[in-house]
Amino acid sequence: MTPPALKELAGNDQWKVATPSDGLIKGKWWEMFGDLELNRLEELVSVNNQNVKFAEAQFRQARALVSANHANYYPIIGSTPGITQGDTGQNATGKKGAGGTAQSFNLGAAASWEPDFWGRVRLSVENATDNAQSDAATIQNVLLAQQALLATDYFALAANDMQEAVLKESIEAYQKNLQLTQDRFRFGVASKSDVSLAQTQLLGATAEATDLHVARAQFEHAIAMITGQAPASLSIEPTKIAAPPPPIPVAVPSTLLERRPDIAATERLVAAANANVGIAEAAYYPTLTLTASAGFLSNSLANLFTYASRDWASGANISQTLFDFGRRGAALQGVQAAYDATAATYRQTVLGAFQEVEDDLAGLRYLAEEAGQQDDTVKAAQESLSLELDRYKAGTDSYLNVITTQNIALSDELTAVAILQRRMAAAIDLVKAVGGGWDNTNLPSTDALRAASVRDQKNTPYPKATPISPLKPIADAK
After folding, report:
1. In sequence order, which residues have a C-beta less than 8 Å from that of residue 71 and are 6 or more positions away?
2. Tell me, what's the pLDDT at 181?
3. Which of 77, 239, 397, 430 could form a disulfide with 391, with the two C-beta atoms 3.0–4.6 Å apart?
């Protein structure tokens, strides 16, 4: 199922396999783009993003189940001390003078334990651990997705600002051209139509620049939401994309399987589904329960703690379902089918991961070629525009040709910015496709899950819970 190599790396000297693994992406991958404002915003995602908080809460819930299932290895011990007082009349006893008030004092403890002969407890712990590890990987997958979305929106905003700057320069040039046509009209060199064309071109470019403000505001609002802020509290200064995307280290296919958190999450779900199959099979075997109780029982508090007041019992019970008319068989078939479905989802996730990497590698490769071609196009358009303006000033060409050439030049410049934005988006997608800086060695073990759950129990006040007001800043909510 795992290909020996990535297709888009073959014969492409722009990307190379990262060897040794030290060359792979680690930690704060967004810093490779060298933008300080992006770095600041990315730091807020892990702290304030509500999708990440939701995934983290689900992980803590799954982590608590690991401790709950592991506790089944040990007996349940309880105590039910009590004082009983009653009054029986002589009519109830049938004897004259009999009856009266009686008291009974009881102080005892009881224990019940089910030995894990058939692996029910072990499998339940494995199932809970696998699910918790899947949720741990899901946190990283959600975090990586939100970080990538932020970076994509940020560079889209930067490209929007760059396009606005291009339009601003064009508007300034159009204003000069309008003044030129008006002067030539006053001296009878140009026609009124030239002035109208120049005015139309200027107004159209101004409207197009205004339209970019809508897109910029929406990108800014989206970034605010990703970083857990109200849109009114975030303002990003005009910026630009300083340079093309840097080379992204790419792992070999086998390593890619270890670096994608979504693959790790799905693989852990396969393991959890496999444990469920074992639990369903264990239902065919009998259950042995050992019970014991010990304590003191007396009708007088004064002699409660004496040997004569001892009270104890112990026993063993075996329960076995003899006929269930296919219930256990149907349950086993169901979990086996669930395992097959989860395994198919895992394989599909792996195939999707390889497709994403190949798509992004191909996109970066061809977009780099297109960017070079577009740069040549922009230079040619600028040169053509300069020549066309000279011919118009000399009176050898109409202003309609000038406008046509200016529109072509403006469109080429805006396209060059759009291609740069697409290259940045493809680079971010490739970072996401190779798993960012994560690998599956970061998954917590069973002992680590249990230890963290115990710390949560000690540090979490019960039953207090502070509601979060939707009008209160998220950073201030505790």
Report:
1. none
2. 87
3. 397
Please report, as a single letter, which amino acid is at residue 388.
E
101 within a domain of the structure (yes/no): no
407 burial via Cβ count (<10 Å: 0-12, 13-18, 19+): middle
pLDDT one-digit tens code per residue, 211-226: 999 999 999 999 999 9
Domain count, the chain: 1
Q: How far apart are CA 328 and CA 336, in angstroms?
A: 12
Dist. CA 262–CA 298, nearest whole Å: 63
| pTM recorded for the entire structure | 0.82
CA pair distance 450, 359, nearest whole angstrom? 41
DSSP-assigned states of every residue in 372-436: HHHHHHHHHHHHHHHHHHHHHHTTSS-HHHHHHHHHHHHHHHHHHHHHHHHHHHHHHHHHHHTTT
What residues make up the domain containing 49?
A: 7-72+119-287+327-476
Residue 360's nearest CA partner among 274, 245, 269, 457 is: 245
Alpha helices in 101-229 (DSSP H): 120-186, 192-226
